[in-house]
Amino acid sequence: MVGEISDRHWFCLAPTVTDQVSYDDRNQPTTQIVCEESPSEATQTLITEVKILLDNLTPITNYGYYHGGYNYTYQHQIVSAYAKTKTSAIELALQTAAMVIVEKLTVECADNEYNSRKLSQFMNQCLSDRTLYSISFWDVGYTYEVGQTPAGDWIGVRCLRRAVTPSQNQFEYNP
Predict the structure, then answer these.
(1) 3-52 per-position pLDDT tens digit
(2) How far apart are alpha carbons 137 and 128 in whole angstroms?
(3) For residues 100 and 17, what is the distance between their CA atoms, to the nearest angstrom?
(4) Secondary structure of 103-152 in HEC code, one letter for each residue
(5) Which residues have CB under 8 Å from 149's CB, separation 6+?
(6) Strand 2-4, strand 10-15: pairing
(7) C-alpha closest to that of 51 among 82, 27, 94, 86
(8) Order of strands, edge to edge, in the sheet holding 128-137?
(9) What element of type H or E holds 160?
(10) CB 146 within 8 Å of CB 130
C-alpha cells in the first residue's frame, strides 16, 4: 500500500517475504519504518502512530522448508517507508522488506560452472558502476547484474535462482 500524506511526501507499507532460495535468518527485516529524510514534526507524529500500530501486530510465524530443511521459521511482518517520491517510498519499502536487495559490485569470485568465471572477468574488465539487483519471491529469485560500458550503454545478465539447486531446480513441496 502506498499513499501521499499531508506534507506531500509518500508513505508505503509492505509485507516481508522470505527468500527461500538463499535463506539466511540474518536477512530477516528488523526495522519497521525507514525514512529517506527527516520528517516534519507533524509527520513524525504520524510515523510514531504507525510504528505503535505495527509494534502491536504479532508477526506471523511461518514454519517451512528453507535451505534444505523443515526446521526453519520465518517471521512475516509489515514494514514501511517514508520518502519524497512515490517511487522512492516503494523502493525503500521493498528493500526494507528484503524483497529487493541492491548492491554495488566491485569484484566477485565466480566458479567455472556455466563459464561464470569468464563472464565475471568480462564484467570486471569492461564495465563500470556495476550493480546487483536481487529480487525474491519465496521459492524463486531473480538476480540482475548490470554495468555501464565505456560508451555509456547499460548491459547485464539475469540469473534465475530456484530453491534446492539455485540455478536449475524448482522448489517441490513435500510434507
Answers:
(1) 999 899 999 998 887 665 554 554 555 567 888 888 888 888 888 888 88
(2) 29
(3) 10
(4) EECCCCCCCCHHHHHHHHHHHHHHCEEEEEEEEEEECEEEEEEEEECCCC
(5) 126, 127, 155
(6) antiparallel
(7) 82
(8) 100-104, 128-137, 140-148, 154-162
(9) strand 154-162
(10) yes
The cell for 93 is 519499502
Taking the C-alpha atoms of residue 142 and residue 62, their distance in angstroms, rounded to an integer, is 22
Query: Is 140 within 8 Å of 160 (Cβ atoms)?
Result: yes
Residue with cell 574488465: 125
pLDDT (tens digit, 9 = 90+) per residue, 68-80?
A: 566 667 778 888 9
Among candidate residues 27, 43, 165, the one with its CA nearest the CA of residue 96: 27
> Pairing relation of β-strands 33-35 and 78-83?
parallel
